Amino acid sequence: MEQNFGHCSQINLNEVLSNPDFKKLWNIKKDDISVCKDCERRYMCQDCRAYRKNPDDLYSKPAKCTYFP
Ligand code: SF4
User: For 9, 35, 40, 64, which has the most beta carbons within 10 A of its beta carbon?
Assistant: First the structure.
């Protein structure tokens, strides 16, 4: 992932969980992701926000997908 929230031996887990940046990816659905939102496989396909086709776009399709609906 692009962000580091600290080492578990040095930071309290509650501090990490209360950081809004830690949760910013939690509610992204396949219906929100470009290309995937029009794909018939979107409800059975896993997703990884760590590797995106466009790293600058949080809603970009997964980098390793080669399928084009
Ligand atoms: S197959 Fe590819 S385009 Fe379709 S939902 Fe999965 S990642 Fe998205």
Answer: 35
Which atom of ligand 1 is nearest to 67's Cα?
Answer: 2
Alpha carbon of 34 to ligand 1 centroid (Å): 9
Distance 55 CA to ligand 1 centre (A): 16
Residue pLDDT, tens place only, 4-61: 999 999 999 999 999 999 998 899 999 999 999 999 999 999 888 989 999 999 999 9
Which tokens sit at 64? 């390793």
Range 20-46 burial, b when 16+ CB lie within 10 A, else e: eeeeeeeeeebeebebbeebeebeeee
